[in-house]
Amino acid sequence: MSPSSRLTTVKDHLQPMSTQKSPITCHVLVASVGKPGQHVSVKIEKIDESGAFTTISTSETNDDGRCPNLLPGDYKVEKGIYRVTFETKEFFARLGEKCFYPYVQIVFELEHPEQHYHIPLLISPYSYTTYRGS
């Protein structure tokens, strides 16, 4: 690979990160094959005063498995408890695979609205792992 090709590859990879509008983002990696989870449906919700979750936005991971615009650009992030749902059964069905978890829900508490919150999800048909990313 030529130096200019490497530079283009790096720029393409970094571009989505530099244009992030959402203070909450996610990323799906299919750990069993080491590839991005492309076009995974994602929903983000926030718990309201009654204790019920209210949908804020729905989205889909891009070709790199990332969802840089998970929240609408005009959404004001507040402290609270949020939930991100990944439609894993739908994703694996498109690949012709069965999976054990039909969806993955990650509930987290956002304490510092000025910070960036990144929710990576590593999946395989029979397992998943998550952590707070950067």
Automatic annotation (TrEMBL):
Residues 19-133 form the Transthyretin/hydroxyisourate hydrolase domain. It comes from the Eukaryota. Its EC number is 3.5.2.17. GO terms for molecular function: hydroxyisourate hydrolase activity. The keyword Hydrolase applies. Signal peptide: none annotated. It is an enzyme of class 3 (hydrolase). One of its GO terms (biological process) is purine nucleobase metabolic process. Keywords: Hydrolase, Purine metabolism. It catalyses: 5-hydroxyisourate + H2O = 5-hydroxy-2-oxo-4-ureido-2,5-dihydro-1H-imidazole-5-carboxylate + H(+). Substrate binds at H27, R66, Y131. Catalyzes the hydrolysis of 5-hydroxyisourate (HIU) to 2-oxo-4-hydroxy-4-carboxy-5-ureidoimidazoline (OHCU). Belongs to the transthyretin family. 5-hydroxyisourate hydrolase subfamily. Homotetramer. This is 5-hydroxyisourate hydrolase.
